Amino acid sequence: MRRLSALVLLLALAGPAQAGVAPTPAPTAEPEPTQGVNVVPDTKSPHRSTSGTFLEFGTVTPARPVADAVLVKSTFDTERAVSVYPADATPAVGGGFGFGGRQDQTREVGAWLRLAATTVRVPPMGQVRVPLRLVVPAGTSGGEYVGGVIAESVDQGQATAVQTRTRFAMAVYLKVPGGASGATPGRGRPDGRFEVLEVEPRFDGGRACPRVRYRNDSQDIVDPEVTVRTRGLLGSGESYDRRRVGAVLPGAQATVPLACISRPIGPGSLDVTLRSPKGDGGEAIDFRWLPLPFLIALLFLLVLLGALLATFLRGLRRRRAEPEPAVQATAPANGPE
Amino acid sequence: MRRTALAATTLAVLVSGAGVASAAAGTGTVIDTLAATVVAGPLTLAGVGANVALAPTPGNWTVATGATALTVSDLTGTTNGWAVTATYSDPAVGITALGAANVKVSAGSVTGDILGSALTLASDAALSSPVTVATTGTGTGTGVTLFTTSYSVKVPANATLGAVYGGTVTYTVASVR
Question: How far does the CA of residue B14 sit from the closest CA of chain A (Å)?
């Protein structure tokens, strides 16, 4: 079976303290690891992104239909039934978007997209063109929206206790004009900004692996830029910049782990600066640290210095307290008898 | 094109000029000119599951156990990166649902064309919301990259003897804007 991910975890509880496990069937055939299905904009689409990997509808007037098409592709060497459906995007833990499932109710882009087919049979190494139509309902709040067109191989093995499935999502971006009036909750605010809620330094041995939490109260999708820098007492340290750390939908928040950075030996600081690329928000957070071994060494040094000083002072005091030896005056020996 | 890795599906070999020959019998030269044009391929995700036996103590999280090897093939020839997200849904009828909050996912063991240090990976993230398990961010994702996801699960403290719990985890790959 192609692209079958037949992960099976059967959790059979064997007792109050320990659960047993039932034997699980193995997949009947393994797919080639690089075979799969995919959706891209039609090569003639006027809304094809520069990379050719997603659709950018730009500003869409509500109640005015927009026609386009996508290509459903397969790299399997046999014909495949591929399910295609539109989906809404939701914020994902770690930044970016997750896309709804086939059975999930759609409310935004997933509901506004209509595909000409729900299942297509894609020839080996081939592709099938599927027309689509986008209609944004009248009265939709202004702001930027994202959804997706999903392609999912129908045959992904038998349903088991815990099953893994794989699929492909082609993002669809669009903007609805207006927004100042009638902006619904969850679409951000016309005057909203990108806000950093929390930066957690998370030190891990000789590294700092910061985690950031931010919120997007604007009406656009924001993918913030970050600069992370460590500085040591002796001037050592390093830094990196990331142009995008994880997109966040309007009215949503995201918690994103940033790449780790080595921290210098001894006391130092960690600076994390997050900025909205649209210039409408950002924040710099600075953490300082005094590592425990350094503090212990410093304490030992102070104790040692204190002990030396005490010894020296005690010796000095003892020397001062000792009576001075009496000096007997002796007459000069060369005096006359 | 900046891609150098060639896949069977992306390689078109055009043979031309065959038989620019002097035709005298038994003599002459035939020159074949081969032009191999690399064309863009798709971005795909494939997963190979493994049979994993978990023995959960009711009410407690199991240790993370390696389960699924995922392969991202980015043959698009673009510099856009990719992101793989995981979502939970209830299992088939007849199996008790674990529930999204009782399944945590982690990613690791990265091999292939993209280095692990170039990916942002999930660690012990509950599937109550979609989880970005691996992403290149804005970095390029070109090539074939493999990584493994592992699960940690919890069954209720009052779980019935012999009950079977499960769920479906769907991995989705998408190109980063």
Answer: 18
